[in-house]
Prior knowledge:
The structure holds 2 protein chains of 2 kinds. By secondary structure, chain A is an all-beta fold. Chain A has no helices and 11 strands. The mean pLDDT of chain B is 96.
Amino acid sequence: QVQLQESGPGLVKPSQTLSLTCSVSGDSIITGSSFWSWIRQPAGKGLEWIGYISVSGTTNYNASLKSRATIAVDTSTKQFSLKLNSVTAADTAVYFCARLGPQLAFDFWGQGILVTVSS
Amino acid sequence: SFDLTQPTSLSVFPGQTTTITCSASDLGDKYTSWYQQKPGQSPLLIIYEDHKRPSGISERFSGSHSGPTATLTISGTQPMDEADYFCQAWDSSVVFGGGTKLTVL
């Protein structure tokens, strides 16, 4: 059973960089068939995929974010991270980390962390 | 990439069958997954690869896919099924449908 836990600041100022970390437990992060992902959800709205990274470092991002997102993985600490730069109020959302399994579905999710962009 | 279209909302009475659709013109050759999300909770995977159920998911949930439309069916809908439901597909990137709010009257 995989468990994921997001951590990071809950408040970020406009134009700054949002930084979040997801800690993975209960399974090996180096499972080759998994993609470690970030997804966000503004209040009252739907899910937006941000991107994912494989253990080998291959990344794939949502083009709508216009290259503002960077995802990295650290297998030694069993963590992966998200950096989103030049944030605005539109980036205010609950951010989830999740595992995209070999069946191309998100089978394990973190509890989510609310990040508010405000001065 | 492509857009997945779902009905915004749906209301059913307890015991009825709920049918939620997810459509895209080029969905035909792509697997669809479905998620249930209750208020304040993370999404829960309930269907993957169009029709497969993860361990622990009720048999009342089933999925199907024909051409441009994937369908989530909830048999004998219960008040506990009241939630938002999202479809998701993969086509070189991940796409989510806009979500369907299911109300059990």
